[in-house]
Every structure is written in C-alpha cells, then in structure tokens.
UniProtKB/TrEMBL annotation:
The N-terminal region may be exposed to the interior of the granule, whereas the C-terminal portion may be embedded in the membrane. During phagocytosis and degranulation, proteases may be released and activated and cleave BPI at the junction of the N- and C-terminal portions of the molecule, providing controlled release of the N-terminal antibacterial fragment when bacteria are ingested. The N- and C-terminal barrels adopt an identical fold despite having only 13% of conserved residues. It comes from Rhinopomastus cyanomelas (Common scimitarbill). It is found in: Secreted. This is Bactericidal permeability-increasing protein. The gene is Bpifc_0. The keyword Acyltransferase does not apply. GO terms for molecular function: lipid binding. One of its GO terms (cellular component) is extracellular space.
Length: 220
C-alpha cells in the first residue's frame, strides 16, 4: 500500500464460477510493512447483496478496516508533529497560548514558537455504518516551547478523544472521501505551567487540529 503497510489479498478459496458471475473471496488483511503477525481481530463472515446491474462489485469487511487501523497504529502513522514549518495557517507561539492561559504568560515572558506532538494511545476503533464508517481515537497531545538554543521545553500534555465519520463516494471515476469531525474532547493530563481550565484551550486547539487534519486529507 505504502511504506507503512502491506495488504494480503490472496484467495481464501477457489473462485466460485456461475453462469452470470464469478465470486472471488479474498483475504483482505493489512499488516505493518515487513511484519505479518496476525492482528488481534477475528474475521466475521458477511454477505454481499445480490445485484446484477454492474460489471464489478467490491465489498470490504469491517475486518479489513480494523486490520488497517492496527497496521498503521503499529507503524506509528498516527503520531504527528505540528510545528511552525508544517502548520499551514498558524504561526503558533507561546504568545497565542498566553492570551488564553495566564499561566503560560507567567512561565514564558518572551514569545517562543510552539510545537504540538500528537500520539495515538490506543488502536483507533473503526466501525462500519450505513453509507460511511466511524473512527474513534484516543490520544494525547504534548505542547512544547521551542527555545533559542534549539532545545524544547514541555509546557503541558492533554488527553484527546476524537470521533469522526468518513463517507466514501465515487466521483469522476475516483474514490473520494468526506471527513466529518463529530466530537473532539480534551482533558488536562500534566502541566509544567500550573493547573488551568482546559475549556479555555479547547476552542483554539480544536480549530488548529481540524484545520490541519482537513488540509492533510485534501493533500493526500
């Protein structure tokens, strides 16, 4: 698939050949590249609706998406760093955070660039629903100040819970996906600048993360 994941689409059994169609039962297991350890899921059987008005039908099970999530989580694909060089719309700095968190202003009088490190703490849970699928993610985000001597100083760490819906459609012979962020919640896990109400920070962090996720999705 890419540098992080491989897919095993070998046949599970001999093709079933009928007069009007051929039925191919493929494995559809995604592994981290170079590591074909079986994922911690069991493949459940599913039936494909009987239709005959198109030449080709493809059906993907929830198991396929679950193993994809496991493979990319194992490969570290959900660990993201947002810094001044990679953030498309914001020059994020301690000055911005100081405007809503007085504790940061007391800690850092001189404005410094800020780096956000996001990490998935659990394997994202993917569930298929009608016409789309949902992704539930648990993670953490650590906020660093980038100091003049090229070192970093951790300011605080938050826990993140996110729920998104992804709908897939075929447009102009291309498979397109639309992303909707249903829920994004933060809680303060650790702070080096003193305790503060996380609600003061939620709006700006939600906006930054939503903007960067949408930008990354459109870029790919």
């Amino acid at each position: 698939i890419d540098d992080l994941a491989e897919v095993d689409y070998s046949l599970n059994s001999f093709p079933a050949v009928f007069r009007p169609f051929i039925d191919l039962d493929l494995k559809g297991i995604v592994y981290p590249t170079g590591n074909h350890t079986d994922p911690p899921y069991a493949a459940a059987p599913f039936a494909v609706p009987v239709q005959s008005d198109s030449m080709l039908y493809l059906a993907f099970s929830e198991y396929f998406f679950q193993t994809s999530s496991f493979a990319y989580y194992t490969a570290g694909a959900f660990d993201i760093t947002i810094a001044e060089e990679t953030c498309s719309y914001f020059n994020i700095s301690t000055e911005i955070f100081s405007s809503i968190i007085p504790e940061v202003a007391k800690y850092s009088v001189t404005p410094y660039p800020v780096m956000l490190k996001l990490m998935a703490t659990e394997i994202p849970v993917i569930s298929l629903v009608q016409d789309s699928f949902t992704v539930e993610m648990q993670g953490s985000m650590e906020v660093f100040a980038l100091l003049p001597d090229s070192t970093t100083q951790s300011l605080f760490t938050t826990n993140i819970t996110a729920n998104t819906s992804i709908a897939l459609n075929i447009f102009d012979q291309k498979l397109m996906g639309s992303l909707c962020l249903n829920r994004l919640q933060f809680s303060l896990a650790h702070s080096n600048v003193g305790f503060f109400e996380i609600s003061l920070l939620e709006n700006i962090l939600s906006y930054i993360l939503q903007t960067e996720v949408v930008t990354s999705a459109n870029g790919k």
